[in-house]
Amino acid sequence: MNPIGLHHYLVVSVLLFCLGLLGVIIRRNVIVIYMSLELMLNAANLALVAFSRFNDNLNGQVMVVFIITVAAAEVAVGLALIVALFRRRQTTHVEDLTTMRL
Amino acid sequence: MHPLIFYIFAALTLLCGALVVANPFSRNPVTSAMFLILTIIFMACLFVLLHAFFLSAVQVLVYAGAVMVLFVFVVMLLDLPAEERRKIKLMMAGLGILSTGVIAYAMIRAVRESTLRDTLAPPTIEGSMSAVGSLLFTRFALPFELLSLLLLAAMIGVILLSKKDLK
Questions:
Q1: Chain B contact present for A69, CB below 8 A
Q2: What stretches of chain B show up as alpha helix (H) in DSSP?
Q3: Tell me: the pLDDT tens digits for A71-80?
Q4: pLDDT at residue B84 in the model
Q5: Which of residues 9-28 of A touch B (CB under 8 A)?
């Protein structure tokens, strides 16, 4: 077997990102859509760490620390929004949330 | 390091990621959350293979610990009625899979045809806690401080959004 290089990690990252994208497109539950978004963020993190390792540069890993923090803040705000939405409409199904449809 | 270890962890990560998105046995959000935790943990293993030890610890602590607890907590709090099997519009799902597949094909093609990997020397850096931490407190000190402001703003926002009479 040839040694594991940058492109191996990048392919895993691409596949994981596309799985997350697929989840955002086909799932209809707001919470599951949100989890798929987290999956996409994680895929980006993996790509950044791989680039950092194979370019001998630690800045990418610092970037990942920032991304993880921002993602945590984003999850807190997003879930608060979902809870507020559920209180009003009693649903988390995106097809029932059509208030802004023209 | 044997290449097989990478393949095992990569396969487990992708498998659990797929089960988050489309689980054939359960449409319950809790199941998705549990598989997301597994995905994050296997990704932490991949970080260890990349010698990013600090990040793998942060990944487990922050993501699998804090963020996913928040997810599971909200799912339990909302107490969703047993998710009725709504008819998934087959055409829509097919179009979604098709478009995602095209994007995946294009990106993998781009990765495979890049000449990047030929020029790289064997990696030597270690993402230990001291290395990342010293960078965080010297070169990236200002963004690091701004991050605390962001967390404060998020906290205030969440408290405001959680009030009962949201105006």
A1: yes
A2: 3-21, 29-49, 53-58, 68-78, 90-113, 129-138, 141-161
A3: 999 999 999 9
A4: 60
A5: 9-12, 14-23, 25-28
Digit-coded pLDDT (tens) for A21-66: 999 998 888 899 999 999 999 999 999 999 998 888 889 999 999 9
Give A93's strand partners.
A29
> What are the structure tokens assigned to B68, written together?
């996913």
Its ipTM equals: 0.91
Q: B141-161 and B129-138 helices cross at what angle (nearest 10)?
A: 90
CA distance B146 to B140: 10
Average pLDDT over residues B22-45: 89
Consecutive H or E run containing B85: none
Q: Which of B50, B100, B157 sits opposite A50 (nearest CB)?
A: B50
For residue B103, the one-letter residue type is I
* Cα–Cα distance for residue pair B3/B50, rounded to 1 Å: 12
Residues of A in contact with B80 (CB under 8 A): 92
